[in-house]
Structure formats: structure tokens, C-alpha cells
Amino acid sequence: MKSLKLLPVLLISLLSVFSLPALAVGITEQKSIVADISSLPRIAFEKYTLSNGLDVILVEDHRLPMTTVNLWYHVGAANEEPGLTGFAHLFEHMMFAASKHVPRGMADKLLESAGVTDSNGSTDFDRTNYFDTVPSNQLELALWIHSDRMGYLLDVLDQDALSNQQDVVRNERRQHIENRPYGIVEEAIFHQLFPKTHPYYASVMGSHEDIQAAKLEDIRRFFKRYYRPNNASIVIAGDIDKAKTKLLVEKYFGHFKRGEPIPKLQIVTPPITQERRVEVQDQVELPRVFMGWLTPAAFKAGDAELGVAAQILAGGKSSRLYKKLVYDMQIAQDVNASQNSNALTSIFIIDATARPGHSAKELEAAINEELNQLRSTPPSEVELERVMNSFETASFSQMEKIGGFGLANMLNEYNHYLGDPGYLEKDILRYRQVTAEDVQRVSAAQLQNNARVVVYGIPGTKVLGAEVPTPLPPKKIASTKVVQGLHADQSWRKHIPKAGPLRSVVLPKGESFQLPNGLTVIYHYNPALPLVSVELVFKSGSAANPVDSPGLASFTAQMLDEGTLSRSSMQIADQVAQLGASLSAGASIDASSAQVMSLKKNIDQAVDLLADVVLNPSFPLDEIERQRSSRLAELRQQRENAPAIASRVAAAALFGDKHAYGYLELGTESANKATQRDDLIAFWKKNYVPSNAALVVSGAMTGDEVKAMAQAKFGQWQGAASPIASLGKPETTAARLVLVDQPDAPQTALQLEAIGVERKSLDYAALQVLNGAFGGLFTSRLNTNLREQKGYTYGVGSGFQFQRVSGTFTISGSIRTDVTVPALKEIFKEIKAISAKPMLTQELEKARNAQILSLPARFETNSGMSASMANIFAYDLGLDYYNGLANRFAAVTAKDTQTVAKKYLKPESMIVVGVGDKNKIQQQLKRLNMKLGQVEYRDADGNILK
Question: Of 50, 392, 626, 936, which residue is 20 to 30 A from 800 by alpha carbon distance?
Fold first, then answer.
């Protein structure tokens, strides 16, 4: 993937149960899926095929002035040749390099300047996709870029681009697998499930050896074979005119030649006939067990049954394995199960992480008991109903988003596997026809012990093998060889398409009223789908913690759904699952919140649950101890994650141990051990009061319905808010460089941090534009330098965290160990450069437009709308804030950005935190004579080491 957005290493099919993508448009009815399959909402799509074989799927939806282009190539890791593992993924990166009419870097700059969102690509076992969501007047720009890659990438492919992307992909491997807790353990699952000759063996990412061994001729051959119109499909969805869009598709793609037919893969996956077991040592705190089975391929008999089985086993707090391992026995920190559906074979995975003091062997024994039960006895009808109700809500929740992995991607996925973009109705029926007896029968047949692999991830010394050297950049030699492209040139392609008329945008704005008890109610009526989001947000987060009780706000929020005066923890979990709803609570620096999401038909019961957990928590002692153990285990897990350590240490170094901002939300081990029930009750009584809260509602509830609900559920709630305590002054360390030692780490987690600015600052708009250009956008100065030019990292970025009192400015990225200090020098060089002189007009416009034109995307979903309204309340911004924000961004000048850069981006005020191999970092510091003063050493908890 080109951007900093990450996918899990274990790629899970979007069509697995609870992962059903969006339906969002052409809805003819809004009746329950449970009641009658004939009443399902339908997608008003149109599919046709160009003469060259390109499938085109169009969906017209005018809710917001946004359009997504989602292009799938029917090629993935399954199509790789022996000795070229990871090649499909490497090639995905190559598609973001230059094409004949779009020089390297131009596409991303143009798209960001146009206000693109959900701009990325991804590779899995069976396909590669590329997608961009743009303001609807920029559809032609997106088509120009995507078509030039398909038609004219081959014309300009060169070794420079390949060498750079090999560096980037290898850094991605380090970041996602080698330097991520349990990354190499997960990879071992695939190594046990498949022989080395099988294309799924390498789990998409591939090895350093094969990535580095790829040759330019391999790239050209791969492109010629697979990146042809007859091996692709494109979905264009959103605010479009179908007739005009068809003309544009013909203009940009109709000229391309059809490629040779791609024969169907003839790959046999050897069955597992005897249990395979392996232990993998990793630099982790807690043991983890993985179990994996080869199961029926996507959409084949048994696939849906196993999707349902996965949810019965580990689909949330009401599931069997959660209740047994996490709740009753308290031997697991977490447990998950999934049916990962793919073309050659699917993979059923169960994984669980041990609590401190418990072993992978204990987890395996408990999991085996539940597997035996599922294999021998059909699940109850209540369990099956919970799965189906949750499935109904999950499918509707996916309807809201058009871009990214939403509606357009779902249509492409159905088209890819089945040739039918409109398969959703049949797919839902496929799951609804699953019976309890089916689940038991298929589980007994497929999930046998002798047909599985068991992998233990245990604490120990990580073994990554011999380092594959990164070659020096190749010498540039003028080439006289002319590369023959696939298609005749079209001179008009060298001109960047002009934007169409920009549709007038009025962003959704909440309406507000107040109950007599002081509770603020903010709501937005969105009838597009029968979904409602209801959230209670409080102006008290971890900043309200007593100095000696870091983590108290988070602990309090975590206890809300663990028991009330009338419901136990498990009763709450079961009732939420029975409604097909979701209920969550948590705390950030400046706010605490509890939220429920439900279908409209169940919202009254769902809000009853929300009101009960917020107004009547009982803080049971046994549940406090259970959550305490979980939190202490989570703190241990933070010590194995380098970026999390960097954040923890940076907060401690910047603010000190007597400031609430000096800790992450989870707090410290000593504070969590010391927290008593009375402390939790006191925080709740002080802060969870109506005058300190807002009820935020977004979805299919009218204003009258919201008013009636608010009065009925929360009208009798009483309590007065207490004054917000002063935070005091930060006690920043005198050291400029703070190191945390991780011997033999393949990367250094770098974090530069400085005290920033409060949320209501008049500099907010200028700072956001500045940061976009400096480190916020993919084409920012930082990422262009360290990733695209130097190949030091998979990605580096920056951002201001705006808080009520003050905030932080952070630069962060995972850097290849051997170039840690050179990367740091480049970062400081960019900091100085952004302040030295005003931005040029083009860079300013790109950063400014990226802020302005992407604003509608914040309101695409109910959760996005709720988050925006909650933010308005938490920081007292005013209901019309977002409609005025575009003008404030537009008014930012180059001089403004330079002024705020000088004011806030001061190198001498920044602390550098590095989590990596200290010996190698120190050697680089000496070799490059980089002077940051005396080094301060800390442990993973942020404590200074002497």
C-alpha cells in the first residue's frame, strides 16, 4: 500500500460474516433482513463490459458531492512465480510510480490538492486493488491517473523506481512483521499451513531475499500479463451522471488493447492429515496460541457455516471463548476467531493471548474443550439468533461508506469471485439459511485436531535470519534503449483534466436543545439507512485524573458496562448481542464517552442499556479485579510495541510525572494496582453528570423522536458539574535525546515531540495547513524525503494533537536501524526549511485544498457525524463551526504558515525519543557527529535509568 494506513497481516475476506461491505445506495426498502429476504434493500448498479474486456460497474448516489473510483486487477500472491514471493505486493507499489503522462509524485500531489480521501491500494492472495475518493467534480482527474497507470506504466518503468520501492516494501515488512509483536508468529502459521511451493505460503508480504531479487524485466513481464483491461474491473460510485461517466470511461480506457486470456490457476492445496506444531520465540511479554485449519474456499459449501461458527466461538463478549477464557477462567487477555475466505482455500484461525502467569498450553486446552462442544452439539437457537442479528446490523453499518473498503469495494469483490456485483441479497440468504445443525456438522468435519496447525508464540529471542543487505543506489547510466509500450500514445493525455463545476456544499449541521437538568442534546437526522448512533460525551477525560491516579478516567469508563444495579456484566453483553447492537465506552485526554449503535427498530432497547450503564453502574468488586488484571496485562503488552513505547516515553519526558499529560490513557502499573472501588465511584460521581455531558444522536431519528427519547431516558438524571482542575506546568526533561534499548531491533521507532497548542487557538487553521505540507499528507516534505527519495522508512508523518489546555506536536515513524541518525538529520533539515521561507504557491494550495475539499468526508457516516458533533461540544466550538472552517482554511497564506512554523516548530524545543538498538544508534551518532547533548536512557515505562 502506498500510504500510511495499514492492513492486518492476516488478510480477512470482506465477505466473511460481519464484514459485509456497504450497500449504501439505491435502497428501495428498509425492512428487516430477518423478517423477509424479499424486502432487502437493493443496490441500483449498472454493469457493462468494454470491447477490450474491462468490466465497468456504475452506481449513482447524490448524498454528498463525493465519487469513488475503485479498480481491481484479478491478480495477487496466488499468481506469483516460484522465487518471487511478495512480488504482487511489490508490483502494487510500482503502480504508484511514474507513468508516461503522469511523472513520479504528480498523481498524489494532484489528488491531495483535489481533496482526495480513502486514497490507497492493497494486495491480498487473490487480487490487487487501487482506490480514490474525490470530490465529484474531480472524477476525470482520478480516471486520468488510473488509466495512465493501466495503459502507460510500462513506457517509463526504470531501475530507480524499482530500487526505491524495494526499500519501501522491505521497510514495510520490518514494520508490519519483524518489529510488530507476534508478527513473525503469524507468518509461521502460513509456513505451517502450506508447502513452500504454494503461493499462500509467503502470506502476501514475501521475504527480503525475494523482494530484493526482483528484476526490472520481472516487473515488465508481470505488467504485460496481468495489468490488462480484460483482467480488471472498475467501480465508479457516488455523485455521478451515468451517461457522462460512460463517455469518460470510454475516453480513458476504451483505447487499450485486450491482453492474452489468463488461464485459471491449477494449484492443488495439500490437505493436512496430521497435526503440525511449532513454537516461535518473539520479543513479547505474553504467550499467544494460534490454531489454523484449511477450510472450503470462498462461497463454497461450508464457507458460510464456518463464518457463523467463528462468531459463535469468539464474536464479542457474548461468545463462548470470551466467556470461558477471558471472563470465567481469566486465563486469556483476548481471543479471536475468523473464517478467512480466499479463492484457492480458506483459512480458519483461532488465536488467544495469555494473561500473565498463564501459558499457551492452558489456552489450548480450554479452546479444545469448546471446539469439542461445538463439534458434538449444535449451538443453541439463541446463539444463532445473536449471530444473525449482529450480522444484520453489521451489514447495514457497512452501507454508509462509498469509498475505501465500502460499497465500491464490495461490488468489485462480488464481481471478482462470482461475476455478479449484485450478489449481496443471495449472500445474505446464504448465511440466513445456515442452521444450528449445519454449524455443528461442518465444524465437526472441518475443524478436526488432526487437520490443524498449532503455533505457540512465546517470549524469547527473536530470530530473523541473516540480514539481506540493501544495495547501494545503482549508477545512473543514460540508456538508449527504447521500451516498447503496449498502447499507442494519445497526445491529449499529457494535459491534466480540468475540474468540473464544484457542487455547492453545505455540510450537515447538528441541531441542539437542553434538558432542564442541564444535559445538552445535539442531533442530526439522517434517514438514508435504518441505523442510529447515540453517544454520551463528557468533558472529563484523563486530564481530570488526580496526579497520583493516572489511568483513572480510563478505568472508570471501562467499568461502565461491567455491571449495573439491575444487570450483570454478562447480562449486558448478551442483551447487546441479542439486539445486534454495539456498546462501547472509553476515555481520551479531554473527554469520556459511552456509545451505542443499533438498527432503528431496536434503538429504544439499546438506549435503555446505554442509560443504565452510564447512570447506574455498580462497580462490582469482582469485575474491578478482572478489569485490573486485564489492564495490567495490557500495560505489559505496551512494552513489546516500539511505537507505543515511544509515545509513552515521549509523554513522560515532555510533561513529567506530576502532569496528567505525562501518561497515556491506560496510566501506570502502580496506579492501576492502587485504584480502589471508591476512587472509581468518586470519579464517576464527579464527572458523569448531565451538566458536564452531551447526548449526541445521528441517524434515522427525527427531532421529535430525539426529544422524546432524551426526556424519557435521561430527564430524571441529576448532578452538578465540578470545576475542572488546573493541570499545572509541564516539567520537561533537560535532555534532547532519550533512548530506550531494544537490542537487535530491525527498526528504530522515532518520535520527536514538542508542546503544541490548545484546540481553540486562533492558529488552528494555519497549523493544519502547515502540517499538511510538512508531514500530514502522503506527499508531505517529510514522507517524500525519507520514504520516496531515501527509502529509509515505510512512512513518516507529523501532527498536532489539539487539546483543551495545550497539546503536542509529534513527528513519528519507524526507521531502518542502520539509517536512524541520517534520517534524524533529514528530519531536522526539513524542520528548519519549513520555517526558513514561505511555501511556494503550488505547495500552499495543495495543503490548503486538502483540508477544505476533504471536509464532506467527515460526515459520510453516522459515526463520523457523531464524532464531529461530540468534538464541537467537548471544545465549545459552536454548531456552525465546520461550515465556517472551510473559509478559515481558505484564508491561510504562505506568510501565515511560516509564522506559525517559527512559533511552534522549534528544533531546540523538541525531544527526540528513539526505541531501538542503542549500540547501533550510538555508533551512528558518533560517526555522523550529530550533537544532541547528553543522552538520557529510560525503560519501556518511561522511567529514567541511571
Answer: 936
Higher pLDDT, 322 or 26: 322
- Cα atoms in the 13 Å half-sphere on the side-chain side of 263: 3
Measured distance CA(549)–CA(823) in Å, rounded: 37
Nearest Cα neighbor of 800 from 789, 785, 792, 811 is 811
Whether residue 5 is predicted with pLDDT greater than 90 in this model: the reply is no
Under a CB-based contact definition with an 8 Å cutoff, are residues 405 and 340 in contact?
no
Query: What does the chain come to in residues?
Result: 946
3-state class (DSSP) for residue 548: coil
Alpha carbon separation from 530 to 27, 699, 774 (Å, rounded): 11, 7, 41
Task: Calculate the alpha carbon distances from 625 to 327, 631, 632, 669 in Å.
Answer: 11, 10, 10, 14
| Cell numbers found for residue 675 | 485504584
Domain 737-937 class, CATH top level:
alpha beta
Residue pair 753/643 in contact (Cβ under 8 Å)? The answer is no
The beta strands (E) that lie in 837-886 are given as none
Q: CA nearest 287: which of 80, 485, 458?
A: 458
* Short-list 845, 854, 238, CA closest to 505: 854
Measured in degrees and rounded to the nearest 5, phi and psi for residue 46 equal -130, 130
What is the 8-class DSSP label of residue 496?
P
Assigned C-alpha cell, 743 = 537490542
CA distance 862 to 397: 9
Phi, psi of 931 (to 5 degrees): -100, 105
The CA radius of gyration of the chain, in Å to the nearest whole number, is 27
Q: Into which CATH architecture does domain 276-378+435-459 fall?
A: 2-Layer Sandwich (3.30)
* Least confident interval from 44-58, 259-273, 393-407, 441-455: 393-407
Which has the closest alpha carbon to 85: 169, 203, 180? 203
pLDDT in tens, 490-513: 999 999 999 998 877 788 889 999
The amino acid at residue 384 is: L
- Helix residue spans in 639-695 (DSSP H): 642-655, 669-674, 677-687
Query: Whose grid coordinates read 514561505?
Result: 838
Q: Which spans in 179-215 are helix H?
A: 183-193, 208-213
Helix (H) or strand (E) holding 280: strand 276-282
Residue 87: Cβ-neighbour burial (10 angstroms; 0-12, 13-18, 19+): buried
Candidates 432, 307, 420; CA nearest to 38 is 432
DSSP state of 800: E
Cα→Cα distances 301→40, 306, 345, 424, Å? 23, 10, 12, 17
Q: Residue 199 carries which side chain, given as an amino acid letter?
A: P
Written as nine digits, the cell of 39 is: 424486502
In which order are the strands placed within the sheet that holds 737-741? Answer: 793-801, 808-816, 747-755, 911-916, 737-741, 935-937
For residue 196, give every residue at least 6 positions away whose Cβ sits within 8 Å of its Cβ, in sequence order, or none.
none
Rounded Cα distance between 558 and 499, Å, is 48
DSSP labels, 219-254 = HHHHHHHHSSGGGEEEEEEES--HHHHHHHHHHHHT
* HSE-up (13 A, CA, CB side) for residue 6: 14
Listed residue (312, 325, 322) closest to 365, CA to CA: 325
Domain ranges of the chain: 45-267, 276-378+435-459, 511-714, 737-937
CA distance 157 to 95: 10
The alpha carbon of 598 is separated from its chain's Cα centroid by a whole number of angstroms, namely 22
CATH tag for 45-267 (out of 3.40.50.1100, 3.40.50.2300, 3.30.420.40, 3.30.830.10) = 3.30.830.10
pLDDT tens-digit readout, 854-876:
999 999 899 999 999 999 999 99
Taking CA atoms, 603 is separated from 581, 701, 705, 915, in Å, by: 9, 9, 11, 46
Q: Which three cell numbers stand for residue 453?
A: 496447525
Look-up of cell digits 484546540: 759
